[in-house]
Each structure stands twice: as structure tokens, then as C-alpha cells.
Specification:
- The chain is of the alpha+beta class and 293 residues long.
- The protein has a domain of 156 residues: Apoptosis, Tumor Necrosis Factor Receptor Associated Protein 2, Chain A (Sandwich), CATH 2.60.210.
- It has five helices and ten strands; from the N terminus they run H-H-H-E-E-H-E-E-E-H-E-E-E-E-E.
- A five-stranded antiparallel β-sheet has the order 1-2-10-7-8, with no helix packed on it. Strands 3, 4, 5, 6 and 9 form a five-stranded antiparallel β-sheet that branches.
- The N and C termini lie far apart (129 Å).
């Protein structure tokens, strides 16, 4: 670029020499692993900040505070490995994994009690029915002549009240199943000796009320099996309270109802203190006729 006219040197004038400048060689940027050409003395020094004094004041209120309670004992893996490995022991292990702190033992015991407990073992002799039994019915295994037999019981609560409401009609148990025989029923007939049939019609009601309240009450117990798939011959024992009759052999291919008309005892004396009576039967043998199925 040409200089402007006014800045050009005139003839005969001296020109002052320009000062010489020492040129510095180009420097490379500092790369990790490669030495820098910038002297270390030219780097900026780090900021120096004085460290705080240690907090060790002897008169501090923190030194007067009570020490913290020790940590509760935690069950180690070695101790847990010594526990019995049963599926029913998980609630015990969960409840005792960490011991409660002092003063909270009662809450820990209440929490452990709320955990699901191991179900009680069935009573000896209990028989699990194929279907749930109705209310008032029970089934168990009993020893009859050295052999385990199935026993079904029917508990009749407030016997006198139920007989008075039925006015001579039979009391029928809920249906139940036993040994593959469906829809079985027990029946209680209050007039086993046909006392009411021999009385006059006007006297029957008063005679019946006296019989069921004051006695003697001679009833009949029968077994009804009217829904069998195959004709069956059964050998059973029937019982009222503590009195048993049998063995009795009934062929249900001929008729659906069989039983004992008279046990020879006053049924009112077989009731418990609450006025309930328990009747039942023991199934000894069952013979099914395959040809009738």
C-alpha cells in the first residue's frame, strides 16, 4: 500500500532508523504428555487460603452431651445360618432379625404376634372331608373293633326348641358326603313309639309339648341316602348321645331311608347342659353293586 503524499520523506532529510524488536519464536500450546515451552516461572501461582483452626475448644458444650446409645445387636450371617431352614420358621426369623432398642421390647413383641402364625396341627383322628361340612356337622376317625372307621356327628342345638317348632315333623341334618357316598342325611323323629298316633286329635298337641319338655322322649334316628349313583349295602352304627346301636346292615337299593326306631333311652337325658344333643353314625363297610351304576 503506498504511503500518503504528506508522509513521504522529502529530499535531503534524514530518516530515523526504527528500533529493532526482538522477535519471539512461536510457541506451541501445552499438550498432555508433551513438554511446554513456557517457563514454569511464568505460570500463575495457586491461590493460597489459610486452613481453619481445628475445632478443639475444651469448654465447648458439645463435650458435655451424653454419649449416644450403642447400636442394637444385628444378627450376623453366621448366626442366621444356624437357624432351622423351614418354611414355617420365616416369621420367627423376621421377628428376631434385629433386636429392639431398650424400652421398645413390648412393641416388638406385639409386632411379632401380628405376624402370620403357623397353623395348628389337626387333632388326632380328624378326617379331612372331600367337601366342607355344613355348620353343626363334624367328621373324624374312630377305632371300632381295632379298625379305624369314619364317624359323622350332627350336633342339634336347643333340641327342645327345635322339636317344639317342628310340631312332630322330623328334624333333618344338612346334606353331607362320606366315603364317596353323596347327599347323605341324618333324620330325627321325636315320636319313635308312635305315642301321638294312639292319642286323640285334641290331646296330641298337649301330649307332644309335655313329652318334649318333661319326657320321657323316645325318638328315632334314621339315615337317608336317596341320591346314590349305584345301589349300596352299608354296615353302620347309629348313636344318640352316649348310646350306640349296631352294627346295622341296610340295603339302600330297596329303600332310601333306614334307621333305629327306639334306642330304649330318654333322649332328654342324653342332652348336655346347654340342651344340645349329638347324634351320629359310624360307617363300617360299604358294598357297591357295579352292575347298577
Amino acid at each position: 500500500m503506498p504511503l500518503p503524499v504528506d508522509s513521504r520523506p522529502k529530499a535531503g532529510s534524514e530518516v530515523a532508523a526504527l528500533p529493532k524488536i526482538a522477535w519471539q519464536a512461536p510457541q506451541k500450546l501445552s499438550v498432555e504428555g508433551v513438554g511446554s515451552m513456557v517457563p514454569l516461572s511464568s505460570w500463575a501461582s495457586p491461590l493460597r487460603v489459610p486452613l481453619p483452626e481445628p475445632f478443639l475448644a475444651e469448654d465447648s458444650a458439645m463435650l458435655d452431651l451424653p454419649q449416644a446409645s450403642p447400636w442394637p445387636e444385628v444378627t450376623t450371617l453366621a448366626r442366621a445360618a444356624s437357624w432351622p431352614q423351614g418354611k414355617d420358621d420365616w416369621s420367627l426369623q423376621a421377628a428376631t432379625l434385629v433386636e429392639p432398642p431398650p424400652g421398645l421390647e413390648g412393641l416388638a413383641a406385639a409386632a411379632a404376634a401380628a405376624l402370620p402364625q403357623k397353623p395348628a396341627a389337626p387333632a388326632p383322628g380328624a378326617v379331612k372331608p372331600a367337601l366342607p361340612l355344613p355348620v353343626g356337622m363334624s367328621m373324624c376317625s374312630v377305632d371300632v373293633g381295632g379298625t379305624a372307621r369314619t364317624r359323622i356327628e350332627w350336633r342339634i342345638d336347643d333340641l327342645v326348641g327345635k322339636l317344639q317348632a317342628s310340631m312332630g315333623r322330623p328334624l333333618v341334618s344338612p346334606p353331607f358326603s362320606a366315603l364317596g357316598l353323596p347327599n347323605l342325611r341324618l333324620m330325627v323323629l321325636p315320636d319313635g313309639r308312635d305315642t301321638l298316633k294312639n292319642a286323640r286329635s285334641g290331646e296330641r298337641k298337649g301330649l307332644y309339648t309335655t313329652m318334649i319338655k318333661k319326657g320321657p322322649l323316645f325318638g328315632a334316628l334314621k339315615l337317608k341316602a336317596d341320591c346314590l349313583d349305584c345301589a349300596a349295602v352299608m354296615s353302620v352304627n347309629l348313636s344318640v348321645g352316649g348310646v350306640r346301636a349296631g352294627p346295622l346292615i341296610y340295603d339302600f337299593s330297596d329303600q332310601a331311608i333306614h334307621g333305629v326306631d327306639d334306642f330304649g333311652v330318654d333322649w332328654l337325658k342324653q342332652t348336655d347342659q346347654g340342651g344340645s344333643l349329638t347324634v351320629g353314625m359310624e360307617i363300617l363297610e360299604v358294598h357297591t353293586q357295579i352292575s347298577s351304576c
